[in-house]
Design a protein that fits this description.
This protein is of the alpha+beta class. The chain is built from 17 helices and 15 strands. The longest helix has 26 residues.
């Protein structure tokens, strides 16, 4: 058998490698994984646009020896099939390099281990020019951002990006805000110091990041469904569903906070944690359709790093696809929780059929369908119709038919989904209006039976004392 070596064009290969699909916040999260694996307790992120676009991340972890640094700079330095330490957040041995290359053309790593400082650099322009994977040992690196802080540490690692070309400077502030929100969610367990984790501090430009727990576990109206453990290929997987509070149970500010920028409908579903770090969230993996009635359901899944293969975790650690053998358990859990998750909405929706109250609206059957209709058995409606002649009754009938036909259901549904606290429907009927109506009714004369009917209506049901004087 005859063989020959065909070397790739490294410049073209690098261009392809840079387009894996990292966003800035996902790339930074990948770097933080390495800091957490190195037992860091403090991580400082430096990101500015002046005098030039600069980025650096400094941790106080255990650092690396020179040999370890060179190995860390190697692409695919670790075999993904190797058994990792249980606290290792790595996956393919590519994260540091691919995450950095996705944002910049020059990656420099300075590390200190037992007070010995080592530095290596990947310069993509130099590599493309030489068409060879030449790892550079810089002669001068004390000018790098955060280097003064790095020197004060007994051990740690400083990563800097130079020649950044994937972060647009015109919306830099927006990127920083997005980065903060992403890290506060993805690493919330570390930021909270949830046992058995050591508390982690992450600062962006000296501003600490506050943990964002997506399950609102401290609110008394949050329902924590009993967790269960399932055994998959010899490993234990913990699954716990949560049902977030209905908007009527919390403040507008808190409701909007837990909606996240994606909104409740897109944030429902599974939240997959790998070694306490969120990989993917707000997905049903095609096992269930995201609907408004289930928007408060969030299901936490916790897996060890030994199960990566069965969950299809990608290089960026931002996507996952569970194996078919896992999906049957997930379907079962979805079935168990969706009924409970829909109750805060279905219970309120059924109130229109409450026979103990005479309501202004009712559901009107139409063969296999229905529509919402004005209740023409309402005592106020009957009283009004009795005071009109036939011509006035006819005009009122057409007007009310139009009100019913053009009820803005889409707009109502949209507002209930996006901004329910801003709806002030009760303001259409003030206390002053009710008092004036009561005077008019009394002046027309009220029988005892009619009073009892009025006390069953939505207006007067909680005002039994008003007919006593």
């Amino acid at each position: 058998m005859k063989t020959e070596t065909v070397r790739p064009n490294i410049g073209n290969f690098i261009d392809s490698l840079r387009e894996i699909g990292y966003s800035t916040e996902v790339a930074v999260a990948d770097l933080i994984d390495n800091s957490i694996t190195a037992n860091s307790s403090d991580i400082h992120i430096y990101a500015v646009t002046k005098p030039i676009l600069s980025f650096a991340i400094l941790d106080n972890g255990k650092g690396m020896s020179e040999i370890e640094l060179v190995e860390a700079m190697r692409l695919a330095g670790k075999n993904q099939r190797d058994i990792r330490d249980k606290n290792d957040l790595g996956r393919f041995g590519l994260g540091l390099k691919t995450a950095s290359f996705s944002q910049c053309k020059k990656l420099t790593v300075v590390t200190k281990n037992k007070r010995n400082i080592s530095c290596r650099q990947w310069d993509l322009n130099y590599i493309a020019e030489k068409n060879e994977w030449f790892l550079v040992t810089p002669d001068d690196y004390n000018h790098l951002p955060l280097y003064d802080e790095f020197e004060k540490l007994e051990s740690g690692t400083l990563i800097t990006w130079e020649e950044i070309d994937k972060i647009p400077s015109d919306n830099f502030a927006e990127m920083i805000d997005k980065l903060r929100k992403h890290l506060s969610l993805i690493f919330h367990k570390f930021l909270e110091g949830q046992a058995p984790l050591k508390k982690l501090n992450i600062l962006v430009n000296n501003n600490p990041i506050k943990a964002f727990n997506p399950f609102n576990i401290n609110h008394p109206a949050t329902q924590q469904i009993t967790s269960e453990k399932i055994n998959i290929y010899g490993s234990s997987v913990s699954i716990q569903p949560f049902i977030l509070p209905h908007h009527s149970k919390i403040s507008q500010q808190e409701y909007e906070l837990y909606a996240t920028e994606e909104g409740y409908v897109k944030s429902q579903g599974f939240y997959l944690y790998r070694q306490h770090r969120i990989i993917i969230y707000g997905t049903w993996w095609g096992l269930h359709k995201a609907v408004d009635a289930h928007k408060l359901i969030r299901v936490k899944i916790e897996i060890p790093n030994s199960m990566d293969t069965y969950w299809g975790i990608d290089i960026k650690k931002s996507m996952a696809r569970p194996a078919d053998v896992i999906k049957s358990d997930l379907r079962r859990i979805i079935t168990q929780v969706i009924d409970k998750g829909a109750r805060p909405f279905s219970a309120r929706g059924k109130k229109i059929d409450d026979k103990t109250i005479i309501q202004f609206w009712e559901t009107f059957p139409l063969k296999e369908n229905f529509r919402f209709a004005i209740n023409q058995s309402h005592p106020l409606f009957i009283n009004l119709m009795a005071s009109l002649d036939d011509y006035q009754k006819e005009k009122l009938k057409y007007y009310l038919n139009g009100v019913q036909a053009y009820l803005p259901l889409d707009a109502i549904q949209s507002k209930l989904q996006t901004d329910p606290h801003s709806i002030r429907q009760e303001s259409a009927l003030t206390e002053d209006d009710i008092n004036k109506l009561l005077i008019m009714l009394k002046e027309s004369g009220l029988s005892e039976d009619y009073k009892q009917e009025l006390l069953k209506t939505e207006i007067f049901k909680n005002r039994p004392e008003i007919f006593k004087s």
